[in-house]
Design brief:
Bound molecules: 3-hydroxy-3-carboxy-adipic acid, copper (II) ion
Distance between the termini: 64 Å
Strand order of the largest sheet: 1-2-3-4-5-6-7-8
Radius of gyration: 26 Å
Largest sheet: 8 strands, parallel, barrel
Strand content: 5-15%
Order of helices and strands: EHEHEHEHHEHEHEHEHHEHEHHH
CATH topology of the largest domain: TIM Barrel
Number of domains: 2
CATH architecture of the largest domain: Alpha-Beta Barrel
Oligomer: single chain
Shape: elongated
Number of helices: 14
CATH class of the largest domain: Alpha Beta
């Protein structure tokens, strides 16, 4: 059943480490993993132990931290990688190999037959060593692979009965939601296995594609905090949450949503970047209402212009009033907050004044408050 039984594979500590400015220390990795665990992600994917000595040591440390989330590592389709990964005690291994003509030529030089043979060998080796390990096989660059190759590989691997999950990867972010839907749907139908979707965001479809994968029956979605990863990254955790929440709050109620601002701020700090102003949920403008018409309706009922309730994420809504598009309902609301009993004529006069002044430059809240106070003093007292 789509949306009800999916899991998040949080890959900030693998795909995210491939982001241009990400170099996490062990302390930072433990903090990221710990916070993600509190948030409630089901799985945390970490960089291959073969990447560097520190990568291996850190993988061991996070695996030993006793988190609820299962710790996975991500390896090439090679026996030596499998051996090293198994030795770290991880709970799951994600195996990947390129199947697009470009990657077959430039990455590993194997034919489809050889890919199937190598993968079967590596996967059965892992299964023999660790019968209970969570094992996933994924094709890299799935959407630029020849369809006939793709199905040949997936069906052969599914038939071995060795893996728990098949992964689909939009490695260069070219897939449209309809294509993701079709591929995932076919794989669900043909293999009956769990399906994972990993989508890059080069052309802006990463969240929509993840959603399409779930609609088609995918069981696992890869995310990173703020969407960091190679180039401009993958499906962001917060963006996926926003997408699913707006379908039905119940789809994300298993997660501690109020931790999202802290997660995004933490990664921005560790990677020396800003949270984008237009970021899902935590961007500085995500809950700012401006035009007078919007402000009036939001003051009456926030859901008129908010599909997401900021309270659910521990963030604040803001109504800005010191600009030329302002309306008198918002100004009256401000007077009310200040405890000033101004009549409608006075509020409208202040609003006119704000608009005139703001045609040149926006007014700060302090300036607006001064205007309101001045009018309140000038207004004859009503008993
Ligand atoms: C890469 C590999 C990968 C792997 C995805 C997966 C991709 O860094 O190029 O294992 O599902 O995007 O294809 O991240
Ligand atoms: Cu990737």
């Amino acid at each position: 059943m789509p949306f009800h039984q999916y899991s998040i594979i949080e890959s900030t500590l693998r795909e995210g480490e491939q982001f241009s400015t990400a170099t996490f220390t062990l302390a930072q990795k433990l903090e990221i993993a710990g916070r993600l665990d509190e948030f409630g992600v089901e799985m945390i994917e970490m960089t291959s132990p073969l990447a560097s000595p520190r990568s291996e040591a850190d993988l061991r440390a996070v695996t030993a931290a006793g988190l609820k989330a299962r710790i996975l590592t991500h390896i090439r389709c090679k026996k030596e990688d499998a051996l090293r990964a198994l030795d770290t005690g991880v709970q799951g291994i994600d195996v990947v190999i390129g199947t697009s003509p470009r990657l077959m030529q430039h990455s590993h030089g194997k034919s489809i037959r050889q890919i199937i043979d190598t993968a079967s060998e590596v996967l059965s080796f892992i299964r023999e060593q660790q019968p209970d390990i969570i094992l996933r096989f994924s094709t890299e660059d799935s959407f630029r692979s020849r369809e006939v190759d793709l199905y040949r590989v997936y069906l052969a691997i599914a038939e071995t009965g060795l893996v728990n999950r098949l992964g689909v990867a939009d490695t260069v972010g070219v897939a449209l939601p309809t294509r993701v839907y079709d591929l995932v749907r076919q794989l669900v139908r043909l293999t009956g296995l769990d399906i994972e979707f990993h989508g890059h965001n080069d052309s802006g479809c990463a969240i929509a594609n993840a959603c399409a994968a779930l609609e088609a029956g995918a069981t696992h979605i890869d995310t990173t905090i703020l969407g960091i990863g190679e180039r401009n990254g993958i499906t962001p955790l917060g963006g996926l949450i926003a997408r699913l929440y707006t379908l039905d709050k119940a789809f994300v109620s298993k997660y501690t949503l109020t931790l999202l601002p802290e997660l995004d701020a933490m990664i921005a700090r560790f990677c020396h970047i800003d949270i984008p102003f237009n970021n899902y949920i935590t961007g500085s403008s995500a809950f700012i209402h401006k035009a007078g018409i919007h402000a009036k309706a939001v003051l009456a009922d926030p859901s008129t212009y908010e599909a997401l309730n900021p309270d659910d994420f521990g963030v604040q809504r803001e109504i800005v009033i010191g600009h030329r598009l302002t309306g008198w309902n918002a100004v009256r609301h401000r007077a009310h907050i200040l405890g000033l009993a101004l009549d409608d004529a006075a509020i409208q006069a202040v609003t006119r004044r704000i608009k005139e002044q703001a045609d040149d430059a926006p007014l700060s809240l302090v300036e607006i408050d001064e205007l309101l106070h001045r009018h309140a003093l000038a207004q004859p007292h009503t008993p």
